[in-house]
Design brief:
2 strands; single chain; mainly alpha
Length: 98
């Protein structure tokens, strides 16, 4: 009986630890998110000859969503950028540019 309960305990522990590790790896920290979005803001301003600023203050954010938003900002055209129109993929973050 003790061998069975130890086995169950170790299986539970491995599953729990793997879940925690996977969860952290799929999220950007606040610092990582701010750096990535600040970088794309600077690049887009250079490309579009503008001086947009943002209210960056992110909570930890999902990497897939953040990467999609960053890619869409970079690929958006300057006309939309200069009109302060952000891609739809960025709506989950609540970025505002001015």
């Amino acid at each position: 009986m003790k061998v069975f309960s130890k086995t169950i305990f170790y299986i539970f522990l491995v599953v729990l630890l793997s879940y925690c590790t996977t969860k952290k790896e799929s999220i950007y920290s606040i610092q990582e998110a701010n750096i990535k979005f600040s970088l794309v803001l600077v690049l887009k301003n250079l490309e579009c000859n503008s001086t947009k600023q943002s209210n960056f203050f992110f909570f930890p954010v999902d990497k897939n969503q953040a990467d999609l938003c960053i890619k869409d900002i970079y690929l958006s055209d300057c006309e939309k950028w200069n009109q302060n129109i952000l891609p739809e993929s960025c709506s989950f973050i609540g970025i505002q540019i001015k």
